[in-house]
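Chapter review: from sequence to fold.
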Amino acid sequence: METIHRAFVGDSRDLEAIDDASVDLVVTSPPYPMIEMWDDLFTELDPAVGDALEAGDGRAAFEAMHAQLELVWDELERVLVDGGIACLNVGDATRSVDGSFRVYANHARVLEAFESRGFDPLPDVLWRKPANSAAKFMGSGMIPPNAYVTLEHEYVLVFRKGGESREFEPGADRRYEAAYFWEERNRWFSDVWTEVRGELQDLGSDDLRDRSAAYPLEIPYRLICMYSAYGDTVLDPFWGTGTTTLAAMCAGRHSVGSELEAAFVERFTDSLDQVPGLSRSVGRARLERHREFVARRREEGKAFEYQATHYDTPVVTKMEREIRLREVESIDAVENGTGYEYRAEHAPLSLE
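The token string follows.
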């Protein structure tokens, strides 16, 4: 099986390189308005942002930043298939502007923007992203009432384009082979993820690291497994360090991404030799966790009715029988005028 991954350098407000209705799933983490590390970027996109911040008008700056993101949301509406899913990792911001401290609810603003474009909101996920500080509050120490809680969570907002779910041909292999285990479903489809942690990705230079807001690989990998099948294409319009593309490679899906800075794409390309080993370890870890679940369930005296077709292990439900995990065998990278195309060859997961 071959998957194709495109990463191009460009502005996500105009995804002209992507055809209408050619993307099945969007998984991304946009820059968060009112987080200071993104001030310069938003000001470059619209000088009114910098003017508002300098004038101490936080609300105007917040709206101007989201106005730029909404140009990307317009493009997502165009390229996503009917019934396709968009998953956005979004964090709120806390900030003092002109001496006034408040929270800027980015998740609520994004929710409003997608609803206005006809997307149906689906149940979202909260995942815990611990702050570096040991303090659990900000403000006046031990004296009420002017302290504030520390934000240690981010949202994964989930939307469906249109009112109908995607349809597949009955018994489609690419769907049943992409099934997840029963216990994975119970963990992944919980609305709170407490076992996922934020991570600082090694990008090879301090300058790149300072400009990165990479989320943990586990987040896009889960979302891709949850909301797509083999053969689907995943889009990340804020590609960054390529975490979503890496997750798509590990999950055996196609992907496409847009990134403003060529240095990120170059760095990703230089590290392709690590992908086969990573994809193998991800698949084996899933299988090992399932076998541990089987052992625990048997210790509890519970039986299994079904057997997996491709693995020497029982499964809980009939729909799990055809699960077939895959690993990357090799990747070829071809440079083009706007970025790179990566062709990944996949094989069934090797067990030894």
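Two observations follow directly from the output. Confidence is low (pLDDT under 50) at residues 199-206. The two ends are 20 Å apart (CA to CA).
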